[in-house]
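Let's practice the habit of predicting before peeking. Look at the sequence and jot down your guess about where helices and strands might fall. Then scroll down.
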Amino acid sequence: MAQPLSNHSKKTPGHRLAQWLIMLLVTVAALEPGLPSAQAQAPLADPPSGLYESGPASRDGIGKFYMGREISFVMGHRGVDWLERPEREIEERPDLVVDSLDLAPDAVVADIGAGSGYFTFRLSRLVPDGRVVAVDIQPEMLSVIETRGERLGVSNIELVLGTVTDPNLAPASIDSALLVDAYHEFSHPREMMEGLMRALEPGGRLFLVEYRGEDPEIPILPLHKMTVAQARLELEAVGFEFVDNLRHLPQQHLMIFRKPEIQPLTTGG
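Done guessing? Here is the structure:
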């Protein structure tokens, strides 16, 4: 079980990270419409599909459960400063993340849950002859990316407004998808992964970056972490193949999944 974050007293970078996150979650919950405190939030309603369950919400969750995991709060657009904090270069090593993707210069890669574009612009430099598709469900986040792109003169970024159930990407339209600290917030993870499965070319790769849920010493709220076992359980249920888990980041998993080259045949009744 993870230690309570409030018990950390030394001012190390990791503890400062925890304090930032606690303050951010409290601030966003207080200011963002639709993000009440955990104690006040009712579980999200879903059609009786059998995919999701409801229960009491924990302090950083929404009271909605998928395959045994409670889904966490969503970071609102007022959290841009957190996404762009200077310490992130050291805490998350985004340079190592993008270097590990091995993208071709003409690749089409989707940044799912793009937020402020922290990874979008890093990816755009790797695919000068390709395209980065920045997907987010918040128009305010896409506006931040658009404004910055115009200022920097970046022309290979496409903005897509997704929904909580669909990334809104055309079938077989992307080579790769990158999700950084976003998947655990998806209110409809099954539907989103099915959408990404459709959007990827056969053999296309999905890169999932999440704080390591196996390590209680990482000072991140529990629902904002994931274990490899849980990630595999959820993505393999949709049909993704697990390829590898790269272990060179300071505090996060970099898990690689792949869409099968040949899709399973379906039989008619």
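How did you do? Confidence is low (pLDDT under 50) at residues 1-48.
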